[in-house]
Amino acid sequence: xxxxxxxxxxxxxxxxxxxxxxxxxxxxxxxxxxxxxxxxxxxxxxxxxxxxxxxxxxxxxxxxxxxxxxxxxxxxxxxxxxxxxxxxxxxxxxxxxxxxxxxxxxxxxxxxxxxxxxxxxxxxxxxxxxxxxxxxxxxxxxxxxxxxxxxxxxxxxxxxxxxxxxxxxxxxxxxxxxxxxxxxxxxxxxxxxxxxxxxxxxxxxxxxxxxxxxxxxxxxxxxxxxxxxxxxxxxxxxxxxxxxxxxxxxxxxxxxxxxxxxxxxxxxxxxxxxxxxxxxxxxxxxxxxxxxxxxxxxxxxxxxxxxxxxxxxxxxxxxxxxxxxxxxxxxxxxxxxxxxxxxxxxxxxxxxxxxxxxxxxxxxxxxxxxxxxxxxxxxxxxxxxxxxxxxxxxxxxxxxxxxxxxxxxxxxxx
Length: 414
Description:
By secondary structure, the protein is an alpha/beta fold. It has helices at residues 14-29, 53-66, 79-82, 84-88, 105-108, 147-151, 159-170, 195-201, 218-223, 225-232, 249-254, 261-274, 293-305, 333-349, 368-372, 381-389, 393-406; strands spanning 4-8, 33-34, 43-48, 72-77, 94-95, 122-123, 126-136, 155-156, 176-181, 211-213, 237-241, 279-286, 310-315, 352-356, 363-367. Helix 13 (293-305) packs parallel to helix 14.
């Protein structure tokens, strides 16, 4: 009788979601049955996220919860590397790290080996998304980041393989392709290529606004700016997410993410001028050690001055073992919350919608115009942004109807 496997993957991380999707294909090819009911399973695979302490806690609670079942539990994802001691304190079973996924063969590799399974492209985001993972791993040394321990060294796909996968997207029914990687801008450093040469080689459709470049470090955006600009002016890019993390050059130097913020601001503004429908997204960390109120204002000003379309706000989460967690000048949580609420109010005053995620406690924000006019533009990522801030389609229609009648809607989206 074929054994049953339940994969738990309640994440907001597209990279680990794709690992879980590939695992599902691998299991089915080896004659295992995938089930959603944990009680039915012979094996439970928990895909964990250690991005911030809140997501780690969620993963630990999931592991504790499923320990009551008779199934053999396997923990994978980032927590085995980002939070070693916390995991060991509650779990002594099987662990498979992101960098050693081939060890699933020790449990399930009856007919096919994990390394022989091609990358999957279907995303948990929906059937209109197609993922092209161009690389794995991260060569950066950000002072606050524990995830780099979990993703390992950089490994890039050959350019022709990436081109082939984008061609497969063009022939599919999907209308959004996510160009993905743990650090997508570092693509090619290990194989004598570059992100600039890659993005110009990809066969993206002109005026299609079909591509999302995810997790593009600002330094790579500036380094390969000419190539990105060449592609953007053809309206092939629908969205670029480039995490500034702070508007203060002193803070980003402490983060080990040093970049010329004035140059970055000009680049963002020029990209929007070249391709007005292009969505620019970012992330901001609030309350990094030694951050002052005035440095928070620099972050707020950067977002407002560049009219960033979409983004995430995170309260600084000190991860054990990182340089930032050991820094002097840790900001008290009550002050971090106060600064987060101030940032939110500034966004609302400038026609942004905001929504607090239940899973990560991150705040998502988006320009009101992007959400309310998403049906009037060619760029499908305007609707994508509305989906992230208001996943309920019925609620979306209610908001659109209210806005059409009154020209106003509440800035906080529940």
